[in-house]
Amino acid sequence: MTMFETFQTVTYEGADSDNPLAFRHYDAKKQVMGKSLEEHLRFAVAYWHSFAWEGGDPFGGSTFQRDWHPQNSMENAFKKADAAFDFFRVLDVPYFCWHDLDLRPDQGNFADNLATLDQITDYLGEKMEQVGTKLLWGTANMFSERRWMSGASTNPDPDVFAFAAATVKSCMDATHKMGGENYVLWGGREGYETLLNTNMGQELDHMGRFLNMVVDYKHKIGFKGAILVEPKPQEPSKHQYDFDAATCIGFLRKYGLENEVKLNLEQGHAILAGHSFEHEIAVAAADGMLGSIDMNRNDYQSGWDTDQFPNNTPEVALCYYHILKAGGLGSGGTNFDAKVRRQSLTAEDLIAAHVGGMDICARGLEAAAAMLEDGGLEDALSERYAGWETPEAQAMLESDFESIAARVVAEDIRPEPKSGRQEILENYVNRFV
C-alpha cells in the first residue's frame, strides 16, 4: 500500500465546494477558446520535488519520512515509482517530468547508472500504461553529484564533458523510449564562481558544441519532441551562462540553434533574474522560442528559489495571456516545479498543494482567454501604435537619417507625449481576475 492508496481521484465540485481535495475551478473537459482546459494547460507533476525531495533546507536535514526513504537502493526506487503513479491517479494528471537521479540512485559509474536507468524506466513504462499518465519531458541531473561541481558541458575536465555526453544520451534514449514529448537541458552548474580560474569563451564554445550534439542525436534517433533549455540566474553558480530568456536566445543564435531549440521557462527563475514571468514568456514568444513552462512562485522576501505552489491569479492570468497570444504551449505544458513546505508532512498536504495550483492555473487561463476574447488590451495596443500604420511611418523605416531629418525640418514636426494609460489597463485586467 502506498501513502496515496486510500485517496479517491480528485474531482471537480465547483466554486462553492469547501472540500480541500476537490477542484473548484479546474474542470478538465470545460471548453475555452475551442479547447478543453486539460488540452490548454497540459499539467505535469515534477518527480523531483514531489517524490525525491526529502524536506531538507540549507540549515536542516530531512523532515519527510516516506516509505521509499532512504533513496539509496533500487528496491526503494520501485516503491517511489509505485507511490508516484498512485499520486498521478489521485490527481488524474496527464503528464509527469523527471531527472534521471530522481528515478534511481547514482551508482558512481556510467555503466551501472545506465543499467539502473533502463531498469526503472522499463518499470515506469508499465505504470504509464496502467495509469494513463504520459511523460512531458525527461532531463539529466548534472548538478547534484560532486563530479559536476565545475559544470557539465562547460567543465574544464574533458572527462566530465564525456560523462555528461554519455549521461544526456542515456536520458534522451529513455525519454524517447517512454514517448516523452520534449527533452529539457538545465545547466544547473553551467556558470562560474570567479574569472580567476575560468576561460569563459572556451566554456561557452563547449556548451554550444554540446547542445549541437544534442540536436544531432535527436535527429539520429528520430525523436520528434522539442529540445528545450531552461534559463536560470546566479543559482547555484554566481554567474550562470543561462541567466534569462534573452541571454539564452542570444546564445542559441550565436551557435546556430535558434531553429532547433526552444525555452522551458520557470516563474521562480524569472523572479531571481529581476523579471516578471510574463516578461520571460513574452520575450521567448517574440522570437518563436516559447516551449514549455515550470509553474511555481518565489517568496519575494527571499533571494533563493523557494519553488512554492502558485497562488496569485492575476500573475498567472498575465502569463497565460501571453501564452494564448503565442498560440499555446504546443508540445509543452504546465509542470509544477514546486514543493510543499518542509513542515507540510502528509499525503493530504501534497495532494492539496497540487489541487490548489491546478485551480489557480485554470482560473488564470480562463481570465486570460476572456481578456483575449474581449479584446481590450489588444485594442489599446493597436491604438497606441496606430501611427506606425501610416504610409509615412512605414516609409521612414526604409529611409535614412538625412531624409528623416529633412522631413522633420520641412514639416516642423513637434511631438507631444501621449498617455500610456497604465493604470487604466491595470484596472481593466482586474475586471477579469
From TrEMBL:
EC number: 5.3.1.5
Ligand binding (Mg(2+) 2): 266, 269, 305, 307
Residue numbers binding Mg(2+) 1: 230, 266, 294, 337
Annotated catalysed reactions: alpha-D-xylose = alpha-D-xylulofuranose
GO molecular function, one term: xylose isomerase activity
Keywords, in A-Z order: Carbohydrate metabolism, Cytoplasm, Isomerase, Magnesium, Metal-binding, Xylose metabolism
This protein's record includes keyword Isomerase: yes
Catalytic residue list: 99, 102
Required cofactor names: Mg(2+)
Subcellular location: Cytoplasm
Single GO biological process annotation from the record: D-xylose metabolic process
Family: Belongs to the xylose isomerase family.
Listed name of the protein: Xylose isomerase
